[in-house]
Amino acid sequence: MTPTQDLTKLFCAVYILCSLVVLAYVFNLAAQQLARMHTNFIRQRLRVLEAMVFRHASADIWKDQTQLERLHKRMKEMYGRFNKLVAATAVVVFFLLFGTVFYRLFESCSCSYGRTRLVGCR
Fold first, then answer.
1. How far, CA to CA in Å, does 111 sit from each of 75, 91, 99, 119, 122?
2. Residues 110 and 54 sit within 8 Å (Cβ to Cβ)
3. Which residue has the higher pLDDT, 53 or 42?
4. What is the DSSP letter of 116?
């Protein structure tokens, strides 16, 4: 059913625009949450790796949980800002590589027309 009256057309246009704004907002929230989860996961793995390296580099044997918690706190203080940078960079590089591979495999040539048309492109 296509709207025919001007007021109905205006209402439909405003309704669709508002719906798109709400939908874009929801997708933005989901993307932010996904990026935050990936970043936190990478940062957690980096802290564990740093703690393992620090433990093996020192002569002390870390036996109880409080020493391990202090070690994690110290690693967070020492490398926290660096870990944020590495985690954010890793997420960006992942999406960049994914996009590059995707467009190489599925959009390898541009099927244009006229002078820019590529022969053999489907």
1. 53, 32, 19, 9, 7
2. no
3. 42
4. G
